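Before the break, one more example. Copy the sequence into your notebook; we will annotate it together after we see the structure.
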Amino acid sequence: MVLVTPHKFEDLSVEHEVLAPTGARIVEAGSPAEFRQRAPEADVLLVNAVAPIDSALIATLTRCKAIVRYGAGVDNVDVASAAAAGIQVANVLDASVEEVANHALALALALLRRLRPVHDATARGEWPTAAVHGTRRLSALTCGVVGVGRIGTATAARFEALGLRVVASDPVVTDAPWPLLPLADLLAQADVVSLHLPLTDGTRHLLGAAELEAMRPGAILVNVSRGGLVDEAALARQLQRGALGGAGLDVFEDEPIPATHPLCSSPGALLTPHIAWYTEEAARDVQRKAAQEAARVLTGRPLLSPVT
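Here is what the structure looks like once it is written out:
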């Protein structure tokens, strides 16, 4: 049996099509509680970004051969516990590269052009032409891309195509098409900082209070990766005191972000609900590729994108 976490896909017709030749039964969990209850029966789990696949759950997976993530990040999966239990973990790395890179660019451009406050004022009957005073030509700006994997590279190429100078920083990559700098040097130079790293113990709060204070006055922060990369309370303080020009965020430490969170009332915050990955094409792509990994496991073939 292949068990699917509660999801927001239109349907699971792609999974049924891919897995039909294996004879596997597909079960959609209707709630997180049902998912945890049914998980011990599963041969494969297909999971989203928010379902916690923790050590307690993994200890119950006596039949499970693999846990497959709909997407790239596996920070919600206890990978070490899965490996110790002999359960493979796989992800889908490339289904939404174009979408996430485009969303990062859209957030940055909206902030740089101050579209939200200008729209709000115009809709109130004002004519706020002075609101764009102080905006800069893109070719005069520097974009710092933190993390130059598939999505970071695609994002950097888009900013460069618009005329921005691009610099990069990455804790593991040693060669890139753009100058690789220590993070502190990137923050000192970048007018736009765009984050594209996985969330690990080493990257959690990569941008803490000190790093946010070290950013250039008026700089823009974009995060379409994982909310835990940023100390959100410190970011809210920087926005509220006007030290930063804005923050475009598609991801948060706790999702959905509560309306009482200080970021929700911070000037210059542009928030979207973890949708950067989505287009109709990307959704079908990630469903197909995750199901194909499940099919490989069920038919004794090696995974294409193993994490363990």
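The two ends are 22 Å apart (CA to CA). The mean pLDDT is 97. Try to locate both features in your own notes.
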